[in-house]
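For practice. Any example?
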Amino acid sequence: MPERQAMIDRPDRHILGDEALAYARKRVWLARELESGLTDVLAAEGWRAYTLADPDVSNDRLVRLAEGGLAYAQDAQREMAREVTEAMRRHPSPVWIVPDSLGRPTDRVVLNAGVDFLVRGESVYYVARSDDPDGLLAVWWQAASAAGQLGFVSAAGAAADDVDYDLDAALLQAVLVVFTVFDGESFLFLERDGPGPTPGDEAAGTSRQLLGDGPPMP
């Protein structure tokens, strides 16, 4: 993926190590009903982590993901949307899903939302199916919270009227997961080259076996 590698090699994109995955795993509660599934997905191998910051920010500063005061001269949210757009364009049927960390399906602010959303139990998940950056940001802003946010790009696209969309299947096929870091001043990106197994595939059974989520497959 030479084009993607060139993007990663831009000076404002900093590759992070295992500490970034460890941080992300402490923030999976933001996914609400999908917390357990996201925990399992991030336990799989193949994830790479990076963040956005000015080129001269030191590694010692970058590993302190929970601290504000990061130096980044760009519009971090616009740059985040750009990353999401690029991830969506690498897959034929992508979807951008952003959990509302606090909202409930009956909340007026949710019912009056100008974006599509799906419901799982008492949790709300805003959805964008187009890779237009403004639409991606609209979904992100709808879920804005001082407690932090996450969103993910899945290769398991959904029809506009698919109220029975399988969020678990979408999570298995996540190819990019985004977390707010540095007190909301930038983002942590976890990406992998391709989606995980689709439920029902032989690979899915292997994944469940590796994760201890079922008996060994014959």
